[in-house]
Amino acid sequence: MIVHLVDGTYELFRHFYGLRRFNKGKDRPCGAVLGVLNTVLEMIEQGATHIGVATDHVIESFRNELWSGYKTGDGIDPALWAQFHPLEEALAAMGVTVWPMKELEADDALASAATLAAGDPRVEQVCIWTPDKDLAQCVRENRIVQVDRKTKAIRDADAVRAKFGVTPGLIPDYLALVGDSADGYPGIAGIGPKGAASLLNRHGRIEDFPPEILGEQRELALLFKKLATLRTDARLFTHSDELRWNGPTEAFAEFSARCAEPRVLARARKARPAC
After folding, report:
1. What is the pTM of this model?
2. CB 109 within 8 A of CB 101
3. How many other β-carbons are positioned within 10 Å of the β-carbon of residue 149?
């Protein structure tokens, strides 16, 4: 089996702002949610059988306690924010496994789910559907890969090395040095992507750098690495079979009616696997 793990927060943002290009600011209450549901249904129609979707039920996590500048929910468009929790409810009603994250982030859920699924010998491959560079640290040869839906690129370990100049295991160190503006930490002054890759390939992990390389900035670099390192210990499921999609639940009809969108219900029923 192939396990597909979807970054629900990214997909919601993608569909919301994609629709914004056409709706002239008149956002449908369920517009972005329906976009995500149709994306998941498209995956199912193309053969996906085992799917899990991770979402940020709240934006803040334990990382905000470590770094005051870490990303928060401030600035999120209210019309977009209003669709976060309905997305989780809609996915569950459609029969899709969904992990609404609170103390951890959606990225942590994806990393944890990938680790769990890869430990199942029946799983041939794990596909993490997100362009987020944080998730590159989860890639393992061709067993765990990252898929960028927008560019259609499939990123295995060789592709991670080609893009960032380091192996997947050094991505947290790389991000600690260069920073991540999306997550709100700046990296180490004076170190860019090429310099970071060169240092890491020469010395290995930040912990193994000679003291003079980072000097007084060593502790800051280690803090940023902690921010960049995804958790893989969330016990999201016991068996990969729990991720199998068996069709929509009865509650999905109510959601479809509430959003005045019967087509998504018909599409889900048509895609439902035969017993």
Report:
1. 0.94
2. yes
3. 16
| Better pLDDT: 42 or 61 | 42
Q: How many whole angstroms separate alpha carbon 83 and alpha carbon 68?
A: 26
Q: Are strands 2-7 and 50-56 parallel, antiparallel or unpaired?
A: parallel
Residue 275 to residue 244: CA distance in whole angstroms? 13
Q: Which of 147, 166, 149 is nearest to 228 (CA)?
A: 166
Out of 3.40.50.1010, 3.30.499.10, 3.40.50.2300, 2.40.10.120, which CATH number does the structure's domain 2-157+231-271 have?
3.40.50.1010
Cα-Cα-Cα-Cα dihedral sign, residues 12, 13, 15, 19: positive
Q: Give strand pairing partners of 185.
A: 180
| Span 222-243, pLDDT tens digits | 999 999 999 999 999 999 999 9
Per-residue model confidence as pLDDT tens digits over 154-191 = 999 999 999 999 999 999 999 999 999 888 999 999 99
Amino acid at 143: R
Distant-in-sequence, close-in-space partners of 44: CB < 8 Å, separation ≥ 6: 51, 245, 271
For residue 99, list its beta bridge partners.
54
- For the chain, give the percent of residues with pLDDT over 90: 82
- Give the CA dihedral 187, 191, 192, 193, nearest 10 degrees: -80
Average pLDDT, the chain: 94
User: How distant is the alpha carbon of residue 1 from its chain centre?
Assistant: 20
Domain 163-228 has CATH 1.10.3720.10: no
